[in-house]
């Protein structure tokens, strides 16, 4: 399975399957381990994932007051992959600096998610690829704040 898919159901099913494997202590592939690590640090989503895929098609509209757990975890995964590849160039350094200031990589990612979400939303609205420089500028401001 790849996380690079437009099939929302398949992506969510992958997350459910990874969590089931983690709970069963089944060996994980590297991508599965990355996803499981993100789930591990979000205990507020464990009950949802442990119910199996009955919520696989659930919508999480803003007016519900609950953020979309699948989108939130996907943003963590994206940031971790960016940091691992240092793409855009400089994201690794920003993440490291934020981690040192905030005391944990997860806290750093939570701050960076705001910039990533803004970048993706802007690109989607304009029908273009995300602007890596604008994203890097946004996350760099976090270090200076």
Q: Shape from CA axes?
A: globular
Q: Tell me the major beta sheet.
A: none
Count of alpha and pi helical runs? 7
Share in β-strands: under 5%
Number of DSSP strands? 0
- Count of discrete structural domains: 2
- The H-and-E topology, N to C, reads as HHHHHHH
**Helix/strand/pairing category:** mainly alpha
**Average pLDDT rating:** 92
Low confidence ranges: none
What level of helicity do the residues show? Answer: 55-70%
User: What distance separates the N and C termini?
Assistant: 38 Å
Instruction: Provide the gyration radius in Å.
Output: 16 Å
Question: What attributes does this structure have?
Answer:
0% strand, mainly alpha, 2 domains, 145 residues
Task: Report on the architecture of this protein.
With 145 residues, the chain is mostly helical. The chain has 2 domains: 1-58, no CATH class; 67-145, no CATH class. The protein has 7 helices and no strands. It has helices spanning 8-23, 30-40, 46-50, 69-85, 91-102, 105-126, 132-144. The termini are far apart.
Task: Please summarize what this structure is.
The chain is mainly α and 145 residues long. It starts with 7 loop residues before the first helix and ends with a helix.
